[in-house]
Amino acid sequence: MKNYKNRICDALLEKKLQGVGAVLLEGPKWCGKTTTCERHVKSVLYMGDPVEKERNMLIASININELLDGKSPRLIDEWQIMPKFWDAVRFRVDHSEGFGHFILTGSVVPPETGEISHTGTGRIVRMKMRPMSLWESQESSGSVSLRALMDGESIGVEKCQARSLSDIAYLVCRGGWPVAVGQQGDMALERAQEYYEATVNTDMSKVDNVPRDPGRVSRLMRSYARLQATQAKLTAIKQDMIEHDVAGLDEDTVKSYINALKKLFVVEDASAWCPCLRSKAVVRTSDTRYFTDPSIAAAALGIGPGDLIRDPRSFGNFFETLAVRDLRCYADAIGGSVSHYLDANGLECDAIVHLRDGRFGLVEIKLGGEALIKEGAATLTALANSVDVEKMKKPSFKMVLTAVGGFAYTRPEDGIVVCPISALKP
Q1: Residue 90 is part of a domain; what is its CATH number?
Q2: Which residue in 379, 413, 422 sits closest to 399, CA to CA?
Q3: Which residue of 24, 74, 112, 372 is 20 to 30 Å from 278, comparing CA positions?
């Protein structure tokens, strides 16, 4: 697997190590956590190493502090195998001078076993890592900076790596898995399928030691894929599963399965954005359903790039998942987050990038083409005009983020940026 060294997490991790005692880096399997952390540490404990696992578990049960000894920063990989590492690291940090003593990595949120007695606040800070964005995989020119847009900088006409719809369909189905990025064609597409099958057949029952029916997991993931980029409620997901041959299913079961997918970082829903508005429109607060990477949805439905090309409406939802993945990665780099807007009048905005200081940008996600760009621009204008600028800031930028296009530019009539995803960077 190619060792990509321009991961967004590299700079974030280095910065956090300078100000806290320990960092917990979480995210889905195969996204590159261990490889990234190895570049920042001086000693490593691999808890998942089958050769040393039994010995390490025995030592941890007798005196876990012995496993903490080593040059710092020290990496404890897959720490959740022995959850008592959390309190041990927190205690060691409390009694050590300086910062940057430990990095913990985890592909699963550990079950509540009572072995963790302290939140770790002030000692251990959390970071999330996702599959690679197009900029990280060197498939975006990076000619348009999200940070610069948030700072209010304008853009003229910026050339980028032009992508066809076929290119984007392939990138959706391949995903941002580092091992797949370094491969080509059908071989790269197989990696997402393997991830999906491991989730269904193994990981969903290991996450909290609760046996789960692989068939039901598979049907849930297919339903989630069909309903991605929507605010589907549990009742809708349940109904979709029932319509596809699941009987006797209740909402509590659906919820428990979804929570397990969240603990595995397979799905990552977007929360609702609730701004101060001039109007009295009621803002919908339901989360928007997304996989952490669009390739998981494609694998769940058993579809490939050609299928997306033949179904533009579904393609749009898959592309939105890819775009939100990239926006989340870029927002992380500038200390921001991504949410979604929908009100009772039907006004909807796909992504709002907001920073802790109150600045925000509005993003509509479209495959491309003049008609869809105009539609997105109209939505952005309507939402921007609804914001009560006496109570909050004006949007730093308004953007239609497209799948295709060889240039990024600013529309002279309304100042809206039209940017292909292959031009964007943090």
Answers
A1: 3.40.50.300
A2: 379
A3: 372
| CB hemisphere CA count around 376 (13 angstroms) | 25
The answer to whether 74 and 89 have CB atoms below 8 angstroms apart is: no
**165 and 286 inside one domain:** yes
The model carries a pTM of 0.94
In a domain, 205, yes or no: yes
Q: pLDDT of 120-132, one tens digit each?
A: 778 999 999 999 9
Same structural domain, 124 and 166: no
Helix (H) or strand (E) holding 308: helix 305-310
Q: Please write the tens of the pLDDT for every residue from 326-356.
A: 999 999 999 999 999 999 889 999 999 999 9
What is the chain's length?
Answer: 426
Band of pLDDT at residue 208, cut at 50, 70 and 90: confident
Helix (H), strand (E) at residue 342? strand 336-342
Burial call 226-243: b when 16+ CB within 10 Å, e when fewer: bbbbebbeeeebbebbee
User: 179: closest CA among 170, 188, 168?
Assistant: 188
151 and 286 together in one domain: yes
Helix 214-226 with 294-301: angle, nearest 10 deg: 120
Q: How far apart are CA 134 and CA 136, in angstroms?
A: 5
| DSSP per-residue string spanning 111-135 | P--S------TTTEEEEE--SPPTT
Per the structure, how many domains does the chain have?
2
